[in-house]
Design a protein that fits this description.
- The structure is a single chain.
- By secondary structure, the chain is α+β, with helices and mostly antiparallel strands.
- 37% of the residues lie in helices and 23% in strands.
- It is elongated and about 100 Å long.
């Protein structure tokens, strides 16, 4: 019997210890946002910027589509990257190599027709400072051909622009290649 009482006392003590220790073993509760005020404000600002750029990109797509639709040139094709392209001059010359160095002329306009850049230069396609739509178009061209691209700002010079192209500017680019 004495053994049974010790066991009951031991069980009672063990049960009491478990009851007291169990809450301490649980997961800690997540902090409320008020404890992390700076991060919450920063995340909110970043999210607002993302949403604003998304709305601006959607507006740019509409403007570019409307520009293309109003042209008297129905042969525009939409590239997977979101810009429009058409050939102005085709040749039977050799196709431009992806690693080529070639002479090109770039005429860059905003969609209101204002010329922003007129440059003739020798460029190395993979190493040049050309924007992706120009590079991708050059890869599909033959020497001596020319093409026109209509590009929304986010696929052209972006939200920052450059020293010649203002931020958020949709552009029309004419590429002329030379043998």
């Amino acid at each position: 019997m004495n053994n049974g009482k010790l066991t009951e006392k031991s069980l009672s003590a063990l049960l009491l210890a478990l009851i007291l220790l169990l809450p301490a073993c649980g997961k800690t509760k997540p902090q409320s946002p008020s404890n992390r005020r700076g991060e919450t404000q920063q995340d909110t600002a970043a999210m607002a910027l993302v949403l604003m750029n998304q709305r601006l990109a959607e507006q740019a797509d509409k403007e570019v589509l409307e520009y293309v639709r109003l042209q008297d040139a129905p042969q525009y094709a939409l590239a997977n990257a979101g810009y429009w392209t058409r050939r102005l001059l085709r040749t039977d010359n050799q196709q431009i190599d992806r690693q080529a160095t070639l002479d090109i002329r770039l005429l860059i306009y905003n969609l209101q027709g204002q010329m922003l850049i007129d440059s003739r230069e020798t460029v190395s396609i993979p190493e040049g400072n050309l924007i992706f739509p120009v590079v991708e178009t050059l890869w599909s061209m033959n020497y001596g051909e020319s093409a026109e691209l209509v590009i929304p700002w986010y696929a052209a010079f972006g939200a920052a622009g450059n020293s010649f192209v203002p931020p958020y500017t949709n552009v029309k680019i004419i590429i002329e290649t030379y043998n």
